[in-house]
Amino acid sequence: MVGPVSALMIEAWPEWYGPGGQGDAAADLAKRGRHEGLPSGLVALVADAPVGTVALDATSYGAEPGEGPWMTGLVVCPKMRGRGIATALVAGAERFARALGYPEIHTATITASGLIRRQGWTLARSLDNGYDILRLALG
C-alpha cells in the first residue's frame, strides 16, 4: 500500500516529494505506520485501493511553541474528490488526537481551509505566504 499512497503524496506535493525535493514520501509513510503515539497516519480505502491519506504529527509548518499535535498531509486522489473522503479523514485525525488525550489539534493549509473550517475548526492565524493555521478544541 505504501507505493500508491507514496505516489499520491508525490503528485500532491512535487516540490517536496518529487525529484530534487527534500522529502521522502516512503520514509514519511513508514514513520506514520505506528499504532500508538505520533506520528501516525490514516489511509482512506475504496474497494481496497488507497484514495487518500492524512497524518497526525507532533509539529508542522507554521507551528509555534506549545502547539500540537498537527494534522498534516491531507490529500485525496483527484478522481475521488467531492465524495466526503477528505471530511472522513479529518474526522479520523480528530478522533485519533482525542483518543490520545490531546485538548486541541492544529493544521496548516493553503488549499483546504474551507473544507476544514466547515468541520468546526477556527482560524488561529494567517501567515504572510497564504497559509491559514487552524485549530480545533477537542474538549
Automatic annotation (TrEMBL):
It comes from the Bacteria. Keywords: Transferase. One of its GO terms (molecular function) is acyltransferase activity, transferring groups other than amino-acyl groups. The keyword Nucleotide-binding does not apply. It holds the Pfam family Acetyltransf_1. CDD domains: NAT_SF. Residues 1-139 form the N-acetyltransferase domain. InterPro entries: Acyl_CoA_acyltransferase, GNAT_dom. This is Acetyltransferase (GNAT) family protein.
